[in-house]
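Hi, here's the filled form for the chain we discussed.

Project: internal
Contact: R.S.
Residues: 457
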Amino acid sequence: MPSFGVGMIKLSMNKLLILALGFSFFGCNMAPKVDYVVFSGKVENPSGDKVRISRTGFSQDFPLSEDGSWSDTLRVEAGYYRFDDTKESSEIYLAPGYNLYMTLNTDEFDESIRYEGPGSETNNYLAVKYLLIESSIDPGSFYKMDETQAQGHLDELSLKVNELLAKQEGLSAAFLEMEKRNVTYSVEWNKILFGYYHGKEVPGYEPSEEFMASINAIDYTREDDYLNHATYKELVSKFHERNMKDMEIPQKISYIKGISNPSQQSNMVRSLNYQMTPGGEYNYDIAAFIMELSDDDKLKGRVTDKAKALENLVPGNPSPQFSYEDINGETVSLEDFRGKYVYLDVWATWCGPCVREIPHLKSLEEEYRGRNIAFVGVSIDDLADKEKWMNFVVEKELVGTQVFADSDWSSEWVKSYAIYSIPRFILLDTEGNIIDAMAPRPSNKEGLDEIFAEYSI
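And the returned structure, exactly as it came back:
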């Protein structure tokens, strides 16, 4: 028996000492499990006073210090998230144990993003990947290709991205497994975009079955990817849209009931809310269906209010009224335009689709200048952004009458028109009655010309 020092130690004491040393040894080497992410960084030329991390079912804001820095912890599951500075966004991957330090300059944004610390290898790869994809898809030429050329271009892009992924070191096995699918989703999403924009270049174009084969071959039943991959979520939405394209509302309700993935079904139930229209035949069927399947009390309340509001928005009914301030601080009321047709544009400076309608709206106003119609823009920007709205109106040289709603989305007039998404266009007659509470957008020139001609505007 080995000696442990001067003198003899009894066997029983020796065993206790060994056990104690053993527990001490193992205890010192069992570090506590880290179940959070430390996320800090600094942004130059910040767009606002905070940055945000979000994905389906999760959102956390990080207030910025005066120097544009932030630091905080997140308790999140491993996966893809969106980082945004209230103006632009980027993909980020988070996992418990990460201690990320991020730097960026909003003047360049994607080109400037860099990461340091545990988890930086993964996220620096994502930043480089995005730039590779962005530089490989030139909208000016890609959407003008034919299908064969576009397929070849996307095959080449897929090869480049997978080669980039294969060169990376220090990436976890869990991330690699997810990212290989994510690369596929990104490439296939660009194929969806090609089908849409090529159709604008070539009127009447419909993607061929061969071109759509790889998109249709995707497994659309993955609940994990639906929660984890923003691009996969978009692909799933388009998949269901294609399946329901020619269905009436009752058929769509039956289809959505048959979706087995809980998150997918929940979002498709929510999407039906946007198909409730003034005088719509199936408004109450949609409302009842949402009440039955949704567990979102906020959505249920909105749908109830919307169904009631839509009853009053049928053609011929008097329009709800407003009195809002214009860019000069003068009060403008809808009643001021009595005797003229009124084309209302409900929008906000932060709304991309709204901003994209501006050139079409300017052309429309120019074409109908001198006729008996007033063009009125109603901003629902936050009150805190009123000065930003005023500057935007001047910089973009917006014409017509521009007014600012008194309480953004919560304005009584906005709620009276059941406005839950923008842009929204409304057409009134010379007596202030509703012609169309969901009028065609300026970019839908054919639709607008038709309705304007009907009323001899």
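Let me know if anything looks off before we file it.
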